[in-house]
Each structure stands twice: as C-alpha cells, then as structure tokens.
Design goal:
The protein has about 260 residues and is of the alpha+beta class. The protein is about 45% helix and about 25% strand. The chain is built from three helices and ten strands, in the order αααββββββββββ. The chain has helices spanning about 1-20, 25-30, 30-120, and strands at about 135-140, 160-165, 170, 175, 180-190, 195-205, 205-215, 220-230, 235-240, 260-265. It has a five-stranded antiparallel sheet with strand order 2-1-10-5-8, with no helix packed on it. Strands 3-4-9-6-7 form a five-stranded antiparallel sheet, with no helix packed on it. α1 (about 1-20) runs antiparallel to α3. It starts with a helix and ends with a strand.
Length: about 260
C-alpha cells in the first residue's frame, strides 16, 4: 500500500512538470496563480508523505503483531504436542495396569481352580483309615477298710472292675505298663473321724502326685488326677507318704477308695 502511494506522488510530480512546461508562457503571465497552485500541491504532497509515514508505522506494528502471533502459535503447537505425548503415556500406563489386573485375575482363577482340584483329590475324611491303637485301662477299689497302713506302705486295691491290657496286678497293687504312651491316673481316699493320710503316686520310684486328707469329724473323701508319660515296663502304684499317718483307710458300700488309669495314645 505504501508503494502505491509513493507511485501516486511520482505521477503528480511528473504531471506538474508537464503542466509547468506547457504553460510556462502563460505562467509568466500569471505567476501568482501558479504559486498558489504549487503551494496547494505541495501541501497535498506533504499530506501524502505523512500518510505514507503513518502507514509505514502501522505496517511495522502489524509485522510485530504477526511475529508475536507466530510465537503464540508455535507455543500452542508445542503445548499440543506435549499433551499428545502425555495422553499417549497415560494410555500406555492404563493399558499396562489393565494388563496387570487381567493377569492377577487370571492367576487368582488359576489358584482357585488348583485349590478346587486339590480338594477333589483329597480323600474323604469319613473314609480315611486311621490305625487304631491298643486300649489300656484299669479300675480297681478296696473291697474293705485298709487297717492302719502306717508310712511308706503300698496300697492294694484288690477288687478289679476293668483291666484292659492286663497291666494292673491286684495282689501287689502295682500297674505295669504294657505299652508306651501318655497315661492318666486318678485315685481317691475315704477317711473317717480323726483319720489323716497322704497317698502319693509313685512312677519308677519317683513321686508324681500326692493327695492329703484330714477328717476331723464325719466322713470325708479326697481325689487326685495326674497325666504323665509312661514307657513300656514302667511300674506305677500308690503308697502312704513318709511321715505321720493315722487310722484306717475307709472303703465300703458308703464310699470306695479307688485307683484307676488309662492310656491316651
């Protein structure tokens, strides 16, 4: 646009020169009138030059704005490119996560399938054969009062009710273990007015438990139970303890003094 204005200025100058040449004679006659025309044209030229200068400034500002817009556009393109890369990365992460979750679910299903198969392969508990162990058990009581046994005296329970395994011997009062295992032994002692005794259980000459009873008046009973490991051939029996013992050990229809034992396993 500035070039077009500049071309118009050249045309006007050339036109003025032509007019000045053709009318040089008349200009001499009318010099004052020509000066006015030239002055007017000069003003027009100055105006046009001013317009060209202003347009040049506008054009320069527009180029600056265009450059700025280009920079903004470049930055926007970079931002869009970053967003695309970020979007692709997020998609990849979600894809990996979904793949991991899918693998975990498949693994869980496989584990559950294996567990179900293992359960199906397990034998039915109701039909599983469990080898039986031999039962060992005895129960005996005194058929009558045991008269004043004194200290360290073996107590004999002469009436045998149960003797599975034939470990108890009623003539000596000793239980001879037919098998090794964990055994439970229980005994009770009945006393009457003023009697007192300590009955201790002996396993291979070692005291494993003691039951003490003092009956100041009336009829009284004391009981004791222990659980011990016994090997085959060990002997177990009851005896009165060393020390003071007084009176009979009662046993009759009103209450029995007893000795029993059984193997747990």
């Amino acid at each position: 646009m500035a070039f077009a204005i500049y071309f118009l200025l050249l045309v006007l100058i050339h036109t003025n020169q032509v007019l000045g040449y053709e009318n040089s004679n008349s200009a001499r006659d009318n010099d004052g009138s020509m000066k006015d025309i030239l002055t007017s044209q000069q003003k027009q030229i100055d105006f046009l030059v001013q317009q060209v200068s202003e347009l040049s400034k506008v054009s320069k500002n527009q180029r600056i704005e265009i450059d700025e817009l280009k920079n903004v556009n470049r930055n926007l393109l970079l931002t869009i490119s970053d967003l695309k890369r970020s979007h692709v990365s997020i998609q990849h992460q979600w894809s990996v996560r979904l793949d991991e979750e899918t693998i975990e679910k498949m693994a869980e299903r496989d584990d559950q399938s294996v567990i179900r198969k293992e359960r199906l392969l397990l034998p039915n508990p109701q039909t599983t054969h469990v080898p039986k162990t031999n039962v060992v058990a005895f129960y005996a009581y005194m058929s009558q009062d045991f008269p004043n046994p004194g200290a360290s005296h073996t107590l004999v329970f002469d009436t045998v009710v149960t003797n599975v395994g034939n470990g108890y011997h009623s003539t000596t009062g000793v239980f001879l273990a037919p098998e090794t295992g964990v055994y439970v032994f229980s005994w009770s002692m009945r006393l009457f007015n003023g009697e007192y005794h300590r009955a201790e259980l002996i396993h291979n000459y070692q005291v494993m438990g003691v039951a003490y009873l003092y009956a100041p008046t009336g009829d009284h009973t004391v009981s004791e139970t222990i659980v011990i490991q016994v090997n085959q051939g060990d002997d177990v029996y009851l005896r009165t303890q060393v020390g003071d013992n007084n009176g009979d050990i009662e046993s009759g229809s009103g209450g029995r003094s007893i000795f029993s034992g059984w193997k747990l396993n």
